[in-house]
């Protein structure tokens, strides 16, 4: 939820921009981005059943003109090629990449960052960014995430959220334990 709150406070991050959401799940980040003025959002997930539900969420929220739901397995070239066959510039026509609470096992770290690095380091002059909200789960600590960012040749800064935002999120999200909200960190990642 920290990622959504940050987008609400900083709509300029997505307004008029092309958004790629990784591990979209319900697609909430892409749907909110469309409401904040994004011109195009490609919401992706590696689970085909989730992508079907994601497409329904896009329709229910009347975001079909801006948000497209598709399958993408991180770090998997055949999956990327399938996406690129339909959308040839899907991984380069991107201004900002979004992902919220997607790292629940350490095996996902190099896969996520293989995809992110491919997008952020595309050979053009576009300055892209990746906003990652991470809640430590299982063995995926903040230290591991930060190491993977640096090992991928990328830079990051930790975005500090106002304490009131953290408190409000903890109060509003009954299904999300307060300790998860408090442990979440938002990373702004660039090449």
Automatic annotation (TrEMBL):
<dbReference type="InterPro" id="IPR019410">
    <property type="entry name" value="Methyltransf_16"/>
</dbReference>
<dbReference type="InterPro" id="IPR029063">
    <property type="entry name" value="SAM-dependent_MTases_sf"/>
</dbReference>
<dbReference type="Pfam" id="PF10294">
    <property type="entry name" value="Methyltransf_16"/>
</dbReference>
<protein>
    <submittedName>
        <fullName>Unnamed protein product</fullName>
    </submittedName>
</protein>
């Amino acid at each position: 939820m920290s990622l959504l709150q940050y987008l609400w406070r900083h709509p300029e991050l997505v307004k008029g921009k092309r958004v790629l959401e990784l591990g979209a799940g319900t697609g909430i980040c892409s749907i909110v981005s469309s409401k904040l003025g994004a011109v195009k959002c490609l919401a992706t997930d590696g689970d085909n059943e989730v992508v079907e539900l994601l497409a329904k969420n896009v329709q229910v929220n009347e975001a079909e003109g801006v948000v497209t739901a598709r399958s993408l397995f991180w770090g998997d070239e055949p999956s990327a090629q399938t996406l690129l066959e339909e959308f040839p510039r899907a991984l380069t026509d991107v201004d900002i990449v979004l992902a919220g609470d997607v790292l629940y096992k350490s095996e996902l770290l190099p896969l996520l960052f293989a995809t992110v690095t491919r997008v952020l380091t595309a050979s053009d002059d576009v300055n892209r960014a990746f906003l990652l909200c991470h809640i430590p789960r299982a063995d995926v600590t903040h230290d591991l995430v930060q190491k993977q960012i640096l090992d991928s040749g990328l830079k990051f800064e930790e975005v500090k959220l106002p304490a009131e935002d953290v408190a409000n999120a903890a109060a509003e999200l009954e299904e999300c334990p307060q300790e998860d909200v408090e442990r979440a960190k938002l990373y702004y990642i660039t090449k």
